[in-house]
Amino acid sequence: MTGALSFVLHAALAIHIVLVAVCVWRVWRGENVADRLIGADLVGTLILAVLVIVALIRSNALYIDVALGLAVLGFVSTIALAKYIADEQMF
Amino acid sequence: MTSVLQAIAILAVFTGTAFSVLGVLGFIRMPDVYTRLHATGKVSVFGVVLLLLAAVVLTPLGFSKGLVLIFMLVLGGPAASHSIASAAHAIGIPLERFTRDDLAAVQESAAISHATAENPLPPQA
């Protein structure tokens, strides 16, 4: 791995961790329930991005498996919570 | 060949990170829930997919897993955003600076056309 690619990957990792922190702060101080749900969904997506960057840095495809599981669980939990705040029941 | 792949990966990682930063900036700065959803949809569809393109190009054995994850994100991200927006409209979260609310008009006309003597319209507020 050359120096330029390593630098870009580490900078992207730092930026994504800062973005996760910003989104967690926004979920903590959210305006209403849908705003907090958007924030939680966004935190899941950004952690997915962090896992993909870690897979690139370590050059190991195992982290992409973890990202796959996290993507499926995040999608199902977002749909279930949206249905819960709309209908006040999940099923 | 390797340097070309690394250049593609650097470009993809840079663009994906830029999309993520812009999406989170829109999530902070946009005025209401629906416009924030418009901004955060970009993070899952463009930001992570471009990072995964870099992973597909560079990581050994990560090719098919990356493509499956790209397919899943492109399929699932708009569905999740749509369900959040539909739930927010159903519980009556207001829109900021809007000109017309087509979904409310459709629901009102459906309620009028389905109203009968046994099932009258609800009283207007």
Blueprint of the fold:
The complex is a heterodimer of chains A (91) and B (125).
Chain A: H1 3-28, H2 33-58, H3 62-87
Helix pairs in contact in A: 1-2, 2-3
Chain B: H1 2-29, H2 33-58, H3 63-90, H4 102-114
Helix pairs in contact in B: 1-2, 2-3
Estimated helix fraction of chain A: over 70%
Structural class of chain B: mainly alpha
| Contiguous runs where pLDDT drops below 50 for at least 5 residues of chain A | none
Total number of domains of chain B: 1
Using only CA atoms, what is the Rg of chain A?
A: 16 Å
Q: Uncertain spans of chain B, ≥5 residues at pLDDT below 50?
A: none
Strand content of chain B: under 5%
Query: Strand share of the residues of chain A?
Result: under 5%
Helix/sheet category of chain A: mainly alpha
Helix % of chain B is over 70%
Mean pLDDT of chain A, to the nearest integer, reads 89
List keywords for this structure.
heterodimer, A: 91 residues, mainly alpha, 0% strand, elongated, B: 125 residues
Molecular structure report:
The complex is a heterodimer of chains A (91) and B (125). Chain A has helices spanning 3-28, 33-58, 62-87. Chain A is mostly helical and 91 residues long. In chain A, helix 1 runs antiparallel to helix 2 (33-58) and helix 2 packs antiparallel against helix 3. With 125 residues, chain B is an all-alpha fold. Chain B is 76% helix and 0% strand. In chain B, helix 1 (2-29) packs antiparallel against helix 2 and helix 2 (33-58) packs antiparallel against helix 3. The longest helix of chain B has 28 residues, at 2-29. Chain B is elongated, with a radius of gyration of 21 Å. The chains are: A mainly alpha (91), B mainly alpha (125). The interface between A and B is large, with 48 and 49 residues.
Short description:
With 91 residues, chain A is mainly alpha-helical. Chain A is built from 3 helices and no strands.
